[in-house]
Amino acid sequence: MSKSTAWITGAGGLIGSHLVRAAAQHAPEWNVVPITREKVDLRDDAAVARLFATGRPQLILHCAALSRVGDCETNPELAEAVNVHATRHLSELGAEIPLVFFSTDLVFDGVKGAYQESDPVNPVNVYAETKVRAEEVVLKNPRHFVVRTSLNAGVSPTGNRSFTEDMRRAWERGQTLNLFNDEFRNPIHASVTARAVWNLVRVNRPGLYHLAGSQRLSRWEIGLLVAGRWPQLQPRINEGSLRDYQGPKRSADTSLNCAKLQSLLPFQLPGLRDWLTQNPQEPV
Q1: Three-class SS of residue 244?
Q2: Residues 263, 265, 266, 270: is their CA dihedral positive or negative?
């Protein structure tokens, strides 16, 4: 039997590349087509429409995004084009098929933490604002999914797409990282994210889901864990606080409640601490 075709946009990025790699084990029924910037510019509606008409995918996993908060602040027009317009166009092209859109825990203002899917969003930066608008577009279609995730660890094809890669490069340059003890996330390894998403596709229960690690950790705690993985780099970190931060507004606690998705998965979502312990040889 011929396989169905799945597009993975942003396949050159962190989560996209892990989805491509994980397909052989967790989604062998799909013929995966990586969609990278070299293959098509998602801002070019006509080019994307031609590729869609030729390829006729039966599933779209839409990972492509302008995801660095600073880049979105300095170029909000590009953020709107990549994060909202391209998502809207893909949703229209894929109106009759499942589409999974990747969003972020930063859609929340971080006042309370342990956010559920039913909690109201309140973005505090341009990146999160564009993700909220894109979520609204995607969720208008009952066939489509939105997956909000947190910090994803792991190795990307370009070596600069994950928070752990950013930390490693900083330590290789001899930099000291200032990490807050009162800013909380639920970090997860991208390989776990990919496995969970392929399972969600197989269950085929469209809607809004939170997908993150099971342990709520401060930036400082995350730094200690990651530093312990690379002692040879002599990593240096300072313990700081959001109270002393003078930059653009940050969300203090965007930890996610993932019970809705967990109920559909055949495995437990691990926290970053547990994942590192259980996978001592895996790259982060």
Answers
A1: helix
A2: negative
Distance of CA 139 to the CA centre of its chain: 17
Q: What is the mean predicted confidence (pLDDT) over 208-236?
A: 98
- Residues 6+ away with beta carbon under 8 Å from 98: 58, 59, 60, 143, 144, 145, 201, 204, 206
Q: The tokens of 52 are what? A: 């869609």
d(CA 229, CA 242) in angstroms, rounded, equals 26
Please state the three-class secondary structure of 34-72 as a single string. Answer: EECCCCCCCCCHHHHHHHHHHHCCCEEEECCCCCCHHHH
Tokens matching residue 161:
């797409």
Q: Please report, for the chain, the start and end positions of each structural domain, with discontinuous segments joined by +.
A: 4-278
Residues 6+ apart with CB under 8 A from 168: 230, 233
CATH code reported for the domain at 4-278:
3.40.50.720
72-109 pLDDT per residue, tens: 999 999 999 999 999 999 999 999 999 999 999 999 99
